Amino acid sequence: MTKVDAFKTFVRKNPSLIKYVRTGEMDWQKFYEIYDLYGEEESAWNSYIKKETTVSSNSSSVESKNITEGLLGMASLLKGIDLNTVQNGVSSLQRVVGLLQELGSKTPKEEAKPAYKPRPIYKHFED
After folding, report:
1. Is residue 116 part of a domain?
2. pTM for the predicted model, two decimal places
3. Residues of the chain above pLDDT 90, percent
4. Which tens digits make up the pLDDT trace of 73-122?
5. Cα distance between the two ends of the chain
6. Per residue, what are the HEC states of the chain?
7. 25 domain-assigned
8. What is the span of the domain harbouring residue 42?
């Protein structure tokens, strides 16, 4: 297992680190540097990892908490989207699709070739 994979499993065990990244207080690079220097020592992570005092048997509250955090993250992501930019992008895509449909629907016009007439067997060079 590489150091990065070990860091990923550490983050999965400590999901409270995700909050710091989402709020902008820390970024993943800084967390990885701390992990690279100190490993999983508790003294280095005390300010970031909050030990939960609730009983782990109440997993439904933890799941609902994770779902709520996910929905809040989605809501903040949606707030940052500029709808005018999205509209311009969609209209550009529509124009491109329309152009491709026009190009695909037009078949090249073939010139009408005269029907093939086999030459008579005993006729040579238009005698």
Report:
1. no
2. 0.39
3. 6
4. 888 888 888 888 889 999 999 999 998 888 887 666 666 788 888 777 77
5. 88
6. CCHHHHHHHHHHHCCHHHHHHHHCCCCHHHHHHHHHHHCCCHHHHCCCCCCCCCCCCCHHHHHHHHHHHHHHHHHHHHHCCCHHHHHHHHHHHHHHHHHHHHHHHCCCCCCCCCCCCCCCCCCCCCC
7. yes
8. 1-51
